[in-house]
Amino acid sequence: MSITPDIFLFISGIAALFLGGESLIKGASRLARGLGIHPIVIGLTVVGFGTSAPELVVCIIAALKGSSDIVLGNIVGSNIANIGLILGITALISPISVEMKLIKVEVLLMIVLSIALYAISWNLGLGRIEGVFLFGSLLIFTIYSYYGALRESNRVKQEYKEFIGDNSSILKQAAFIVIGLALLVVGARLIVDSAISIATAFGISEVVIGIAAVAIGTSLPEFATSTVAALRKENDIVVGNIIGSNIFNIGILGLVSVIRPVSVNPEFLKFEYPVMVLFAVLVLPIMKSGHRVSRPEGLFLLLLYTAFLFMLFVL
User: Fold this and answer.
1) CB burial of residue 242 (10 Å; 0-12, 13-18, 19+)
2) Which residues pair with 292 in a beta bridge?
3) Domain boundaries defined on the chain
4) How high is the pLDDT of residue 39?
5) Contact yes or no for 87/298 (Cβ under 8 A)
């Protein structure tokens, strides 16, 4: 049986996810701006959630279908790709200097949550109790970000104001949100169904297809947002988007686990989880070296991510 239709559906699903994520981010951020919410708060919360919306929808659909490997592959793979692939590429485009104070807290929280997720997964399942812990951590982080964002420097606030743009018609932005959500649902269904079919046809595990294909597809909104910000020299947005997205992704996994408990494949404990923690920890010394991600450091992250993908298929 030809798998060409499944590949076409997978690519179509990625396109729908990308367009849906972009539409949701644009509509939600400008609607929030129209309601009087400060741009930096929007950038750290609304945009953070919007870029992680594809992961959320894909994970919910995969969980309901009983595909736990795709759920975990999507989240773990996205967090690795955000740092290795996206931060690496954006640093190559333009070296990143960070001024935002919240970044320090975000990096530490990302590391703590990554280690915590690894630790609580050793019972080979994420139940509702673990889910409440992870999702609760996200809610606490969001509240902290809301108040912490308002204490940032005027330069950082202006950077986010220019990135978000001016508010416009509330009805128009609401339409963007509805269209974005619809595209996300359609795209997620296409990706999950076609990914399972492709994995079965090629004899590839759902773990690999989740990390190597689904995760990269759901990370496209983060890639688009970070690339645009890098080209504009809006460095705080680049790093804030990537680190914040990783925190949101772990919180999203918690929400999915509350909806339907997720089983953990022992393979994740041996390789994928340790790599996720490694990439999270690597950000700390990079950020401490003058709060700057240089081109050589970006190249190092990108090469490390390439090596990870190679080992994923070899091991």
Assistant:
1) buried
2) 97
3) 4-314
4) 65
5) yes
Alpha-carbon span 312 to 111, nearest angstrom: 22
305: confidence class by pLDDT, cuts 50, 70, 90 = very high
Cα 47 to Cα 23, 115, 126, distances in angstroms: 11, 25, 27
Sign of CA dihedral 235, 232, 308, 254: positive
Q: What is the mean pLDDT of residues 4-13?
A: 83
Q: What is the DSSP letter of 123?
A: G
d(CA 16, CA 191): 10
Contacts of 79 (CB under 8 A, 6+ apart): 114, 246, 249, 250, 276, 279, 280
Query: Distance (Å, rounded) from C-alpha 315 to C-alpha 306?
Result: 14
Under 8 Å between Cβ of 217 and 14: yes
Angle between helices 220-231 and 4-34 (to 10 degrees): 60
| CA-based radius of gyration for the chain | 18
User: Could you write out the DSSP letters of every residue in 124-158?
Assistant: SEE-HHHHHHHHHHHHHHHHHHHHHHTTS-HHHHH
Smallest CA-to-CA distance from 249 within 269, 229, 267, 276 is with 276
- Specify whether domain 4-314 bears CATH 1.20.1420.30: yes
- Work out the mean pLDDT of the chain and round it to a whole number: 83
- Global pTM value: 0.88
Cα-based distances in Å from 292 to 109, 180, 205, 301 = 19, 34, 38, 14
Instruction: Give dist(CA 255, CA 56) in Å, integer.
Output: 9
